[in-house]
Amino acid sequence: KKWSKTITSSLSESPFTISANFLNEYRVIAIEEVTVPAGKFNTFKIELQQKFVSYFAERTHGKPAESKKAFIWYSPEIKKEVKVLFEGQEWGNTKSFELVSYRLKKS
Q1: Residue pair 61/102 in contact by the 8 Å Cβ criterion
Q2: Pairwise CA distance, residues 102 & 41, whole Å
Q3: pLDDT tens-digit profile of 43-81?
Q4: Cβ atoms within 10 A of the Cβ of 22, count?
Q5: What element of type H or E holds 7?
């Protein structure tokens, strides 16, 4: 399965305002059982390709990244990502995260 979504990211630090539009393209590439600190989950492994679409700024110093890739392990059981792995320096300092705990809402 594949789908896409356009997102806008904004950063405001007076006197600068920077906004960028990105196209997020998602694709399920596998079904995997994953163990993280919160437990063991059956997940959809999703590849995320984020592409730079447009860039607007009142003032800017530098250019945004043109393309980024990440992998997301999504658990339909708890309706949440249980693991995310970011590829490349374009994502900044965060490289990955794993779900440590969760609590389901009572119906």
Answers
A1: no
A2: 12
A3: 999 999 988 777 554 444 455 556 788 999 999 999 999
A4: 20
A5: strand 2-13
